[in-house]
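Morning. Coffee machine broken again, so started the prediction first thing and wrote up yesterday's gels while waiting. Chain of 121 residues, entered below exactly as on the submission form.
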Amino acid sequence: MSADVETHARCSITIRAAFVARLLAIAIACLVAAHIAVHVAHFGFGRDHLMGLTPLFDMNREGNAPAWYSGTVFLASAAALAAVAAAKRRQADQFQRHWAVLALAFLYLSFDELTQVHEKW
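Came back before lunch.
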């Protein structure tokens, strides 16, 4: 192989949209069911804490399982957008910066959701 020849490593990522959608829908359904269960226990039976499960699954609160789910989805979206931005940069695409800005925006959304920075402002 000569020094003049550049080789570009190709990376292929295959994401099955139906599988991801099904996985996310199952996670959302579980979180909604847990939210409903803790509220039924609270309002229907007067159990307001349930050994810590109410604050853990109440979607009206911060820093719990639904917030972590949301932050993780934002972080995964930021990673996917960053991968697209990197691919567009290699192709010298005119919209490469747009993808990078979107990746940074989703990274901020993830950071904000997980750390509750907006609550302190």
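The helical segments are 17-45, 53-57, 65-90, 96-115, 117-120. Going to sketch it on the whiteboard this afternoon.
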